[in-house]
Q: What sequence folds into this?
């Protein structure tokens, strides 16, 4: 499905166009910058939101990150993916804001609830219902998207950040580790826990009827 | 990473489920896990649920932005870009005016300053005083080598051989100033800015000069 603001369907064409845009902006055609970043604005916002947990702050951080990307566009090297570079700038901006705005109290609570000790303990899944593949059409419903977002919002910061960067921003493990300044092993551990926790959270929600209006065959639940 | 284990328990499988979904396990482990999933309903459920989570959250539709986000972003980027492009021409048009205006301000300021420095202080010497209320038709005498004008017969006319007579008005127009001796009465009123001490001091000085000159 074509989504406004997402990457074009043909990856080769998209890649070539993006390379051209980057070169032109680097040569000083800054008015083309918005065209260059427009496909990634959703991802940039999501990355900032995962860290800041406040839409207004996330939007400010996203805008600032875009401006910083523009200011530093000459430093971008084509060995990296432009999207990854952009997301990393966003993560840095959001982390910097969080430090600056002293949301330490909130983070302290997060850390207390799921500190290193807890991370070292294995997370055991709680729900063993027979899951089946959830059709992507489910995401057409705003209610479902909201439930998913709410479930994500209940995760502690360190799990949420890794999950968003890895599974929503599609950074690889190494890139996620670099962006957050943590080890690859920590990324893997946190990602596993985040996925298993979300799985349990969503299983409980689906049992409460989130998908009751979906066009499944009568009496045949998706799990 | 679990290595060389033909049989895995459920906890070991859960630990590797995330890497399995990412395709980040070696062939041997994958094979062992595949076997486990075929025979363990719980672990198969964990695997299916994890895949659903990755698939659903990985969808672009989960990346929602607030209403108006794109417009606000574009506007902010535009604000950053605008001053750099049209700002240059705006600056050049300003600078075209700025240079002469600044030069004019400097000139006026300089003149003002010079004027202030030159005329703010009162005239120090009675000899340089322009005089005050001198009758314009008063007959006065000037001579070469001096810029003073005198009443006829003044003993302080320097070069009597070059003496010439004219009116006070003409003398003033020619740049002459009244003699502080013979025309003193016109100078005192013109020196109102002098302090009393200064005037007294100058009077004493002149008196001394007059006496010594008379002595010659």
A:
């Amino acid at each position: 499905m074509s989504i406004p603001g997402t990457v074009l369907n043909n990856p080769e064409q998209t890649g070539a166009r993006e390379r051209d845009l980057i070169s032109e902006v680097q040569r000083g055609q800054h008015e083309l910058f918005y065209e260059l970043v427009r496909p990634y604005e959703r991802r940039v916002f999501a990355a900032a939101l995962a860290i800041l947990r406040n839409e207004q702050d996330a939007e400010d951080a996203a805008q600032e990150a875009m401006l910083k990307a523009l200011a530093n566009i000459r430093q971008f090297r084509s060995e990296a993916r432009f999207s990854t570079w952009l997301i990393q700038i966003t993560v840095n901006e959001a982390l910097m804001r969080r430090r600056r705005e002293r949301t330490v109290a909130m983070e302290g609570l997060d850390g207390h609830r799921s500190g290193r000790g807890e991370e070292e303990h294995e997370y055991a899944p709680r729900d063993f219902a027979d899951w089946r593949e959830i059709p992507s059409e489910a995401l057409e419903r705003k209610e479902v998207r909201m439930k998913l977002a709410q479930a994500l919002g209940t995760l502690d910061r360190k799990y949420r950040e890794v999950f968003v960067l890895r599974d929503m921003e599609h950074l690889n493990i190494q890139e996620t580790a670099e962006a957050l300044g943590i080890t690859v092993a920590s990324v893997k551990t946190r990602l596993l826990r985040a996925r298993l926790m979300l799985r349990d959270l969503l299983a409980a929600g689906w049992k409460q009827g989130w998908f009751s209006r979906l066009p499944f065959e009568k009496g045949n639940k998706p799990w | 990473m679990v290595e060389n284990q033909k049989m895995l328990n459920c906890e070991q499988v859960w630990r590797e489920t995330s890497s399995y979904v990412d395709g980040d396990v070696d062939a041997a482990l994958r094979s062992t896990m595949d076997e486990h999933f075929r025979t363990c309903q719980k672990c198969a459920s964990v695997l299916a649920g994890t895949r659903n989570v990755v698939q659903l959250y990985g969808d672009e539709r989960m990346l929602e932005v607030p209403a108006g986000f794109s417009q606000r972003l574009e506007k902010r980027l535009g604000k950053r870009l605008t001053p750099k492009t049209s700002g240059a021409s705006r600056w050049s048009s300003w600078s075209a005016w700025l240079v002469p205006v600044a030069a004019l301000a400097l000139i006026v300021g300089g003149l003002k300053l010079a004027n202030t420095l030159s005329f703010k202080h009162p005239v120090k010497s009675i000899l340089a005083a322009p005089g005050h209320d001198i009758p314009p038709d008063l007959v006065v005498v000037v001579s070469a080598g001096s810029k003073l004008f005198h009443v006829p017969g003044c003993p302080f006319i320097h070069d009597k051989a070059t003496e010439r007579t004219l009116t006070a008005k003409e003398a003033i127009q020619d740049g002459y100033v009244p003699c502080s001796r013979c025309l003193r009465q016109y100078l005192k009123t013109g020196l109102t800015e002098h302090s009393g001490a200064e005037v007294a001091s100058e009077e004493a000085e002149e008196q001394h000069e007059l006496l010594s000159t008379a002595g010659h």
